[in-house]
Specification:
Blueprint: E1 3-6, H1 8-23, E2 30-37, E3 41-48, E4 51-56, H2 57-72, E5 81-85, E6 89-94
Antiparallel strand pairs: 1-6, 2-3, 3-4, 5-6
InterPro entries: Uncharacterised_YxcD
Protein name: YxcD family protein
Length: about 100
């Protein structure tokens, strides 16, 4: 299977869709900000219904896996997805 790369916008969309479904809210009611820090690695701060929540890398990858299946019909496994930081955060899928 070829390598698939998701842009930062697609990662944000994946997390928005995932969190909207989990929280029972509209996708437009979810805001996401991605970040990378040496101490914590990749994280996403998610705002829904006036509350802030942090997702760690494994939660982000869970959302990405669901997005790959629903949007691209790609069934990937956790170990096939890695987040990378260049000029922006991307997800690289070796499937």
């Amino acid at each position: 299977m070829p390598i698939t790369v998701l842009s930062m916008d697609e990662i944000i969309n994946a997390i928005c869709l995932h969190m909207a479904e989990r929280k029972g809210v509209k996708v437009t009611d979810v805001q996401v900000e991605l970040s990378w820090e040496e101490e914590t690695g990749y994280t996403a701060e998610v705002w829904t219904q006036g509350r802030s929540q942090y997702l760690v890398e494994s939660n982000m990858i869970e959302a990405i896996l669901r997005y790959l299946l629903s949007e691209y019909n790609i069934r990937a496994y956790r170990e096939e997805v890695r987040l990378e930081l260049d000029e922006e955060i991307t997800a690289v899928v070796n499937g």
